[in-house]
Amino acid sequence: MKTALVCGAGGFIGGHLVRRLKREGFWVRGVDLKFHEYSETEADDFVIADLRDPYTVRNVIDRRFDEVYQLAADMGGAGFIFTGENDADIMHNSATINLNVLDTAWKRNIKRIFYSSSACMYPAYNQEDPDNPNCAEDSAYPAAPDSEYGWEKLFSERLYLTYGRRRDMDTRVARYHNIFGPQGTWDGGREKAPAALCRKIARAKPVDTIEMWGDGLQTRSFLYVDECVEGTIRLTRSGVTVPVNIGSDEMVSINGLAGIIADIAGKKIDINHIPGPQGVRGRNSDNRLIREMLGWAPSQPLRAGLEKSYEWIEKQVMRNAA
Predict the structure, then answer these.
(1) How many domains does the chain have?
(2) Which one from 149, 163, 176, 224 is the annotated catalytic residue?
(3) Based on the domain organization, do 20 and 76 belong to the same domain?
(4) 224 in catalytic set
């Protein structure tokens, strides 16, 4: 039986990844600071552990695994990343986790390890035009991420790629673009735009007004979690040694995103635009390289994923209101 370790298994993407690996017949160990908030883990072994502690990491990675997936990070949406208040924690916590996990994996002679980077590492100067952002993989340098979160991701990318080149490891790096779906954070300050808007619209009356940070003209693409997991596994098991985007190339404005969700909900929603953190003006996944390298790219329409996400978040809202 093949074995896998999922770091960050108590999180949104990690929980979905564990379920996928179990369906494939893997024995899976999950590790996180907490259990999954919305579902029972399907991991064969789930360890509550702080990966910032090197001694703890050595106990967690106590054997060789066929595949290691490193998704653990200090992260959140714009309200967490772009205020500046969390910058020190973001950089220290995530970098320490990656240094510990990667080096311990190497010392256990683990060969194949995946790292989840982020589109936030792309230069802000290439994302000023909301209609024409440049997020091709080769546009990463000269580096100028728009946040300390992005800088940490860039550093950790280089860390994993260096171990791949110099320490004979099969390191794989994906730049995730705004992953969303059921069983993700939807309230509390760390949620991302799709979940936040689903929550606001679910709580709204049939005719109502919601608040949105910025003018809503900023653009993004959003990838449904099942396609993220598919791309992650395909990349991990491939021979691709360079970072690749894993994201949708269906770009939408945040106003447009709210409009789709309102239509799914059957509500008439007006938007009150207020000051708040927004990030770059435009971002979209460039999928040319992943198509070339893997012969695959995400293809599910945004609306299809939003329908599933809204249904799940609406149930959470109703449960909390009861």
Answers:
(1) 2
(2) 149
(3) yes
(4) no
